Amino acid sequence: MQAEIITIGDELLIGQVVDTNSAFIAKELNGTGIGVHRITSVADTREDILAALEEASRRVALIVITGGLGPTRDDVTKSALAEYAGDCLTLHEPTLRHIEAMMTAKNIAVNPLNVKQAEVPAHAEIIPNSCGTAPGIWFEKNGTVCISMPGVPFEMKTMMRNEIIPRLGQRFTTGVILHRTLLVAGIAESELALRIEQWENGLPSHIRLAYLPSGGMIRLRLSASGDDRDSLLRQVETLVGELPPLLDRRLLSIDDELPEELVGKLLSGKGKTVATAESCTGGNIARLLTSVAGSSAYFKGSVVAYANEVKVHLLNVNPSDIMQYGAVSRRVAERMAQGVRTVMGTDYGIAVSGVAGPGGGTPEKPVGTVWIALADERQTTAKLFHYGENRENNIQRASTSALNMLAEELLA
To answer: The whole model's pTM is what?
Structure first.
């Protein structure tokens, strides 16, 4: 079964707001065996909303909509839905009482716009919004189910999980869709494709493979569809089990984990700790590590050593090494990793020094040149990376590469 998602709002089309609702809805629908055929964003206009509904209804049996259900004049979704359904708006008393209760609890007087928010298509099924004032709307036209939810993410997510997904399970008989994502690092996408070419060619038609490169890593996603969940799980597990011999240490995880999540799990499992010394990444590695709940158990701190004097005074880098080799060098990166490990008293120290750009490069060390070092009680290793000219990309790739280096060491 296929669905389409329509997000409504000028803010999406001018880049003011990033559409995260579609990603959440698609993931939830996939979990119930409903595939997403297309995602469309349209402006807050009657014409655009009606056109999107008409087009989607010719392709799929389910349309899920978010946005445009607020109380202001630019929120036109409800009136467009009523027109599309051949219906009229009417005051829904239970919704009005809910709005009045919410306003009273916040000591806010109910105004005419709040009352207008309780107007809904007369013959639609109204879905309660436990987190906000805009109700959800469910109706059918010519065999296609249309569901409209508020665009506020936490309201939409609550409604989707608590109301929409259970109702879809009662309304539709669906198949099974499974996804399995693996994390690969230290290999180019083209080289990876060649290495697993024979394995990929042997995939059955109901199991597809996608390559998702991002910031110094590649996620391999297997998507399987069918009717028997247990059978699909066994097939996917068998296929995943065939990959480690083909990828060696380049396969970091067979679960859908971000590098910072994987590193956190490995450090926790081994009872080890880490600290970071960051120059060109400006604390981004520390930000990633601390984005994981419970990271205080294994992450002790960071020194953002942007200036050379900080490298010298806080990390005990020898000034003569900076003079002789430069701040962006193997020697300095290694000393930074050793220094932060000593200062923080950790099992591992990660250090990054590079030219993030857009300026600061030289013919010998162009923009995108980055040294990453990893120190423990036994040894200190360093790797040289050449990324590119985009500053943001260089910071992200260097951060990911540093975490991957630590993950590889922990997996060894």
So the answer is: 0.78
